[in-house]
Amino acid sequence: xxxxxxxxxxxxxxxDAEWAEACxxxxxxxxxxxxxxxxxxxxxxxxLVERDREEFLPEDPIAFVDDxxxxxxxxxLRAGVNVRAVELPRLRAAAAVCADHDAILExxxxxxxxxxxxxxxxxxxxxxxxxxxxQVTAASEEGAPVSVKVRAExxxxxxxxxxxxxxxxxxxxxxxxxxxxxxxxxxxxEATELFVIANNGVRxxxxxxxxxAYGADAVSVGRPSRDPEEVQSVYAAVKEWFL
Length: 243
Hints:
This protein is of the alpha/beta class. It has helices at 17-22, 39-50, 61-71, 88-100, 114-118, 129-141, 159-169, 184-191, 205-213, 228-242, and strands at residues 6-8, 29-36, 78-84, 104-108, 146-151, 173-177, 195-199, 218-221.
């Protein structure tokens, strides 16, 4: 899906093309966003901004995605876009743009902010497998590779089972925020053929080796992506593992 097997994970209101280019050489992929692409999720994003969170709220989110991906067309890394959506037509539009740029469409089933969950997006999708699979299938039908960003430790959600379900729906990858349950990466890797991206606490060689030993295909960094030296350190550990 991408190489080197280090990704930059989306950061609310920060992860745009300029952010990705800052670490383009050591990273193999960068997930822009999250981008709210329809009115229910945009309204939730506006509410988040009102309580001092950073969010992307361009006038036309689909055009914004197109412009940001165009800026990365010649970059070393593979781009992806983390999308928050409720309405399938808008999700399809974002996926079609991703397909045009050979970029990954990442369905956001991860955001736990109450406003986004109340809109039916983010973590709410983990508890509504039917709607999550509808989003995966819709994005896949537009020709984009599809990743799903998920979170561990959500009550009532068994991620290995969920991973098998989204795989059948057309997902290519699962991006796992392992929280404090890193072994869930092993359980997902054993349950599916999905490309597994492990996230949370990836800082050094020990973290990288632990996730890859559990069967992850790649690792991703969130806040450390602001520091190219930290990304370089993670890249060096990944390169060592795959030698």
